[in-house]
Here is the input.
Amino acid sequence: MITRMSSLFLRTLREDPADAEVPSHRLLVRAGYVRRVAPGGYTWLPLGIRVLRRIEAVVREEMDAIGAQEIQFPALLPKEPYEATNRWTEYGPNLFRLKDRKGGDYLLGPTHEELFALTVKGEYSSYRDYPVTLYQIQTKYRDEARPRAGILRGREFVMKDSYSFDLDDDGLSKSYQLHREAYIRIFDRLGLDYVIVSATSGAMGGSASEEFLAVAETGEDTYVRSTESGYAANVEAVVTPAPAELPVEGLPEAQVHHTPDTPTIETLVDFLNDKAGLGRTFTAADTLKNVLLKTRQPGQKDWQLLAVGVPGDREVDQKRLEASLEPAEVAMLEEADFAANPFLVKGYIGPKALQDNGVRYLVDPRVVRGTAWVTGADKVDHHVVDLVCGRDFTPDGTIEAAEVREGDASPDGKGTLVAARGIEIGHIFQLGRKYSDAFELDALGPDSKPIRITMGSYGVGVSRLVAVIAEQYHDELGLVWPRQVSPYDVHLVIAGKDETVAAGAEKIAAELSAAGLSVLLDDRKATPGVKFADAELVGVPTILVVGRGLANGVVEVKDRASGERTEVPVGEVVEHLRGVTGH
Amino acid sequence: MITRMSSLFLRTLREDPADAEVPSHRLLVRAGYVRRVAPGGYTWLPLGIRVLRRIEAVVREEMDAIGAQEIQFPALLPKEPYEATNRWTEYGPNLFRLKDRKGGDYLLGPTHEELFALTVKGEYSSYRDYPVTLYQIQTKYRDEARPRAGILRGREFVMKDSYSFDLDDDGLSKSYQLHREAYIRIFDRLGLDYVIVSATSGAMGGSASEEFLAVAETGEDTYVRSTESGYAANVEAVVTPAPAELPVEGLPEAQVHHTPDTPTIETLVDFLNDKAGLGRTFTAADTLKNVLLKTRQPGQKDWQLLAVGVPGDREVDQKRLEASLEPAEVAMLEEADFAANPFLVKGYIGPKALQDNGVRYLVDPRVVRGTAWVTGADKVDHHVVDLVCGRDFTPDGTIEAAEVREGDASPDGKGTLVAARGIEIGHIFQLGRKYSDAFELDALGPDSKPIRITMGSYGVGVSRLVAVIAEQYHDELGLVWPRQVSPYDVHLVIAGKDETVAAGAEKIAAELSAAGLSVLLDDRKATPGVKFADAELVGVPTILVVGRGLANGVVEVKDRASGERTEVPVGEVVEHLRGVTGH
Here is the structure.
């Protein structure tokens, strides 16, 4: 197959798009793979669609290989199933909702759990029918608050989502494991550098949910791994090891101190150590910082106050906080909120005022019974020292909201944590019976009793993968596609205006095509400089230059990744490139 | 490739779905190809998606073969481009509109003219860039008033839409012709029985727009063709030949007659001939029936009265009427409308009251100057005779609203018309400069002057084709797929519980698969009767039965279409089936 650049719908750009934050976005736009249509909405141009299709094919092959069966749902879905599971409400503003001409409520599917469950319920009835795994490669919609980075986080995107349906937990474990292995094969075949991390807190079971994160500095996800064990988790899923509770008897009394000019934790600690005359040394970790927020449950109008107490040496991690409070919305307090709640003394908020006024108060897991804290005394310029948890205050519960830091102890007790950033490319999840309960998805057992089906949920961000691969495979000159997803096998540059050169190049292109290689043939009337720059930008892994050397019977093969150039006799070029490209 | 029915996500149904009106709908649901999710929204099950993909592949190959380049737009589109062309309004209730979280207006693309034009404008600038043809195979959305017949007319469906961009009309003609030939190849390859009919009235140029209609009694479109020439047209596009104008001088005076008990054209004609004593014979064709309607322009709130005058021997054809008035909405008058306009005397409405009261009055093209009519006299039980067009009344224009009938003269003057029904499967259209004007899509010419680009628009209903083929290829037992779109090459039925039979069948399946044939292997624990019935229903064109004959070294090959059975020695079955299936 030969595509001629003289007629290809491709115009490369010299300038980076103004809104491009990350290399993949910049390069996919400049090299003419995608174009922006709306926030989070992109058009796939001819080069882009070829890469997308190749990735889809890999995903499809590996899903078929584990016996998953392909189906396809509409994207436009009626409200009712999503109401049955409360997701119509819980999805909040991330869901695109619309009405049809008769006023019926519809949505654009963000994921299809409901439809998969209902479809299996519609077709299957006996335990003999199970297990079954279904998948689709389909366009999904999410009204992201911050669509960003081109196709990395769009509002319309292609996902492979699959669901397993099993009679029991053992079956679910097997289905989960099959998907885990299929995902490893997919991401390995695509040449990705990735990690598998735990994606849920321990409460749901350690192996119930794992994410595949492509390693990328530009990633939105942060994950940590242990220096000594196999522990790896998305920071959102890290469970803070709680210290043992201590007896409260015999601990010093809580005392309020006048602490002028201590607007920050640092100035407070300095004051306590230098001027308070307490005869003890404090660190920021001895202080308890109370952060005031408000939350709103999906579908509710009113906001509720929430106070989160974390050790003063740690910031609140917004993503961990939000993950802990899902599906509720979280917002910072505004001046009006403080005005409406005068007991909140900004900078000096302490547990007492919170509890006296009925504000829900959740604390870091390190704040256990018997620990003593320096914290706000609910009065300007005053702090309280030796406020003991379980004696002087009783939080309403704990919350994973404090930042996770490199050097923290690994939650499995082995080693310490190191952090890195990644992009979520896959997620496997033992969903259990949430959806089969909602729709009473039962199989009739051998004893004629119903068996509630258990589900697994598995997703791969197919269109995102185009960007993720670009993120890992590029250099300062442009894209450098791995062979298995490159839009073409060979980029043949005709260097020179000589008729003989053009004819020779055409002949080689035809021979390569006949040998089963796809060829992007730069037959444009442009200077060699322009053509070489475009070849580097477009990123086909093998560049074949047919130019003056042809007179001496040689052509040049350039490896896009290494930059290595090889002169090859023209009679051997097809065989040589078949070897290079593996055809 | 072997698919085992024991694990295939397929449950055939014995009963027709309650809402199924046409054979394709009934059979595609019963045979487990599709399932309904919402009005006009269907899920593709494993068998269905295989047929859909095969059709897509044929369409893609033929589009690539004419040099069209594949791209893909989002389905979720911003309002602005559609506002620029007024289609945001003109599309009326057929357009799915929605708002994003920030209140921005979006739509689900019904067709993508705007985006194609804008994208070409974004990439191309010089005359040297042209011509170019782009296409996409993509999911489209239309909020049909009456989604019907399963996937024949859905609200979410897959279309191939392409657009050609040319510098001049000659180029457009060539692009149009290329598409016409590609469509012929596509529909021929799919084995369809279809006609190519003119789709626009002469006003736009005879060859500017043609539809490909699959011949089907259940079709929504009616087309006519000449008994003597190549003329063929959608009835919506038939132009009524207007008779020559006549002199009005010397024609009898118009006279009002008391015509009691003449509520219908038939009773009126009888009265005139039998009781009026006029000494002439009238037919229904001599009467002028005035039908009162109201219309509303897109985006407007108010309705306008409209009177349509047609010869009394013809009904108003709702589809021709609507096509003539597009994009305006049309509705019948309600009692309140008559009450508000007391000059409208129901059953006796004549041109006089209409024109005296400023009601827009459009007539059939047969109503030309000098023709005399019997029509309403705007008074109960009264009609006027010899009311002459151009003398006694002057219509505001003509309208193609009267029914077209078999036996009518062909508009090209050759022969008479015969009618049949069809389903639109393709449409090719010389769009011209509507969209390039809207977006100022120009190419810089060799003389540095801008050249306004001219566009062609071409569509194939890809998902609809699954149903259309089913509509043409089925019998009373089930579907009968043409080989080129069948979900499998061979349906292998294991008939019998004998272990040897099962083992022999598995061996044959493996050999067929190795020879490149796709095999649907019925390895279920079901009776041969159930298996045969399902095989007939599912419709794979070749059924291979492996049963008791195996002991004697033979298997049976059944042709699904003809029912013909052939005994084949087991050693020759692979070769035999390679021959039958063309592998």
In short: Chain B has three domains: 23-73+112-238+419-470, 255-398, 488-581.
